[in-house]
Amino acid sequence: MAASRSAPLLPGQRSASHPQRAVTLGVMGGGQLGRMFVHAAQALGFRTAVLDADPTSPAGRVAHVHIQTPYLDADGLALLVDEADAVTTEFENVPADALRQLATRRPVAPGGDAVAVCQDRAAEKAHFRASGVPCAPFAVIDSEADLAGVLDDLLPGILKTARLGYDGKGQVRVTDRAALEAAWSELGRVTCVLEKRLALAAEVSVIVARGANGQVVQLPLQQNLHRDGILAVTTVPAACASPEQAAEAAACAQRIAASLDYVGVLCVEFFLLADGSQIDGALVANEMAPRPHNSGHYSIDACDVSQFELQVRCMAGLPLVTPRLHSPCVMLNLLGDLWFDTGGRERSPDWAAVLALPGTHLHLYGKTDARQGRKMGHLTVTAASAEAARQVALQAAAVLGIEPF
Ligand code: ATP
Ligand code: MG
Fold it and tell me: Ligand 2 centroid vs 295 CA: distance in angstroms?
């Protein structure tokens, strides 16, 4: 039996189950998404608890309570039930079973079953199709026979591990059958999805938030630029998409959320196909994330309600309102690469020069160890016009050593 709740959890109140403490929101995972969730929850007046084994985790460092155990540790989960009145997740690879166990004692949003679909690319694509949302042609590769049966039409393609991929990891681009066979071996012959490589005009994503009562609100469409498989730049409004495409993306995300009976913030990434390569229309779903998403970080500074506040509201059963974009903006991801000069020597990025530019909002996640490709923070530039935001973002990029976009 899943724990359910009819009355909303109000910030600053005493917990119904533990009157000695204030109402507390718990989060599985202690990364930067958890940290920004904790910031939003605390701003509203909630007490917060994070479960993450890493004593230096970005979210653990700012939460009221940090439970330092693995996700499936029985004592850790019991402690979280004790400390939190509702639980969410900030990381899609938290074992779905941990969420299911928690759900017997506390409202959990999103639920383990919905998260499990997002953890497996094959299940995710099947769910897109079942929801009437187009995705790239694909085949599941689980055996030699699957490999031999691949249709020529899927090549050139991208072989992706079905589970545990992120930031372009666990992916190999293949042009022919020999390369496909080598790639499957390279990936350890685990279950994979082979996707046809599509000619992309642009990439966009949309974030929806769905309450337990089925109410849905959405953020404006985001335009995303990836470099080496990692999100580099997000621009809002998304100039690449028509209003009809933006509405279609939101409608797709809403259908996906509704058919999962989803509660919480959900991000769906889409490809806008280049002319002449259309498959069931120009908008094709790539993947989804059962949580706030890197492409939604701009909402902290450019919207009147952020994706993290939406997550708080969803899990607490509080009213949802449609966020308003009050400023056009550009978000730059700050990867660990920026902490090294061209000779590979460590350096400190010139934050003073960045903050001297108008409309810059710096977010560093408190990670002490800079590594190539590691997400250390992000910078959102807000301005009165999209062009002004872009110009300042380009100046900030030049200061930091980020390639122009
Ligand atoms: P994330 O960090 O978003 O979870 P990921 O590792 O799961 O990333 P994908 O989103 O599947 O990876 O792919 C990363 C990027 O690779 C995409 O944003 C896109 O630029 C490119 N890409 C992926 N699949 C395709 C495809 N079928 N055709 C063309 N480009 C693709
Ligand atoms: Mg992606």
Answer: 10
